[in-house]
Design brief:
Length: 727
Amino acid sequence: MANERGLTAERSGLAAEQEVVDGLYTRLDELRGEADDRLGAIRKEGPSGSPQNRSERDAFATLYEDRIAQLDAVEDRLCFGRLDLRDGDRFYVGRIGLSDAEHVPLLTDWRAPAARAFYSATAANPGPVVNRRHLTTQGRRVTAVEDDVLDVDALREMGADEALAGEGALLAALGARRTGRMGDIVATIQAEQDAVIRAPMTGALVVQGGPGSGKTAVALHRAAYLLYHHREQLESRGVLLIGPSRTFLRYIDHVLPSLGETGAVSTTLAGLVPGVDVTAVEPDGSAEIKGRTLMSDVIKAAVRERQRVPRADKEIRIDGRTVVIKRSDVKDAQGRARREGRPHNEARASFAKDMIGRLTKQLVEQLEVYSDEDRIELERDVRDDRNVRIAINLCWLPITPQQLLRDLFSKPHLLDHAARMLPEHERDLLLRPSAAPFTEADVPLLDEAAELLGEMPGGRGRRPDEPSDEEIQYAKDVLDTFGDGGMVTAEALAARMKGGTARLSVAERARSDRTWTYGHVVVDEAQELSPMAWRMLMRRCPTRSFTIVGDVAQTTSVAGTRWWPETMDPLFQTGWELRELTISYRIPAAVADAAQTYARAARLPVSELRAARELDDATASTRHRDPIATAAGIAHRHADAFAGGDGGLVAVIAPPRLHGALRKALGTPAIDVYTARESKGLEFDVAVVVEPAEIAERPGDLYVALTRPTRRLEVVHAEPLPQGLAL
Ligand SMILES: Nc1ncnc2c1ncn2[C@@H]1O[C@H](COP(=O)(O)OP(=O)(O)OP(=O)(O)O)[C@@H](O)[C@H]1O
């Protein structure tokens, strides 16, 4: 009888909530219809009217398009909660705020202050809330309601556990099959996560948490939260989101739009330097050196090296007269140009102007001309003289960041000069052919160089006294051929000039993007960044407003962080704060235990981590002579079971040398094969980890690999398991 009464109440609860939710979707449809109509009307007007009218119309069209995109994006799970307050008030919480035509609020945005209690109220600390209701919907249909009764007496009577808010809704979300795209967690954000999401925007917030503790989810929701609360400030400067790889960015690219936000720029570190393609991986030895802060001094010295003083004074004939490029003049003019404090390529104009002035003066004195007109004419002659231009270029050579780096790492004499502070064996590690492709560790160096070099001449329209690309390339060739301080005759230079020229490849178009500064920067997998990479990010946000999430136990980069204070203190001094997330929402308890036991044995700095779920049969280990065929067989078995059921993702994580054989044995692109590093930040229903001892050459790599599955970890090996791993 009691049960029946319960069921009836549940059904009537559902029906009542369905009515409310229907009303919300009706309002959503109305708003979408209005925005559609307005956009249609604007488009109908066509491109007529004054330029001002047109640009106003364009602005409105963009506004309506954005609004429609926002309303479309919140269709799924528009409303997911209800709060009943002690004073009898009740309101619904959803992805966006909605009001009716009379401005009566219908739905409260999850980011609004009033909605905070939905995530933070507990039985011990209920605030004004007596009941929190979670609504589960499929499409527009309400399929379940679940109440957290926060009235302590009622709660005690029910003997309920208050550890996880909305446990049913949470466990349903955690148990859902993975699709390969990350979803938002807005309906089930937990209290410790909410505190991070809503933390004030000042300074740097560092969030340390074990695998699956929701760092990525929290970082994305915080970006949405900050955009909502500081819209004016952030919309003009933007929010930058840095992720470890393009695969990872694809994995998360759905989340912000589903939260109604399209205003963040997400990219990798390399994506911040336009025109640079990172295609190579380099040995740890050189990557580690390139990550050190002292590389900023190396780059500085390399740039400075392009400002040269000739070994001897040099005579140049102009229209039958001789002028002398004097070493003392060059030194003096360089000093003056440097004191202006502009970047190298931009300061070159001052140096060139100064030198042209000095040479003109020599002609003026020789010819004894006194009229301004004659003087101006002579100056033009000097400026237009090719030999003069070449000589000036040799003393102050404009150069792109890419070329600077290629030269620096391929020419021992340049490296010896610029990187004097490094021991010889470390300099040797940096040497590589000039045509070698760029690596990830080069990116911050390119950015540093771009900062010191500034715009290439002609980047924003060439001035008359600036050299052409051909002249620059030519002078560069000369320097490449003759090395340090190479003085060659004007005739030799001219002869080579005829031999054809190459254009410099400068990513000028995107230059203005490179120097853009953001209102807030969110960094994911932040433990991987080197000190040089941090320098690069600090330039992107002079206000030092950062959200930094990562796990120092998962660090795989040799130049990365193993202890936050070591990295953060020099960057932010006292302006940073550390928070921890302690519950893993991804991995089942048995996987968490196995991974943590291994990590502790390998002396990784693991944080405390509890798993939110216990699942049976969550781990398995198979030893076999043929790990390739065995792994492929196991992966197929799971994939087939998923195909026959309600879906799910299977992935294989293995050392790179086994990838070819594994792909062949799998025979289908439907099951992805990753290295441990490639799998970073991703998750799968089943992860098949092959030859863990080999992956464990870098213990952080194995820790990452073991913590990818949401349901089952399969370990396959021919070699013995690494120490500390027991399944
Ligand atoms: N409060 C929550 N409600 C529902 N799902 C959650 C919640 N918190 C996290 N998750 C889910 O747990 C999984 C792991 O989250 P996430 O990838 O953000 O963790 P992470 O800490 O970044 O992990 P890693 O260190 O491995 O990169 C994701 O599927 C995420 O959606």
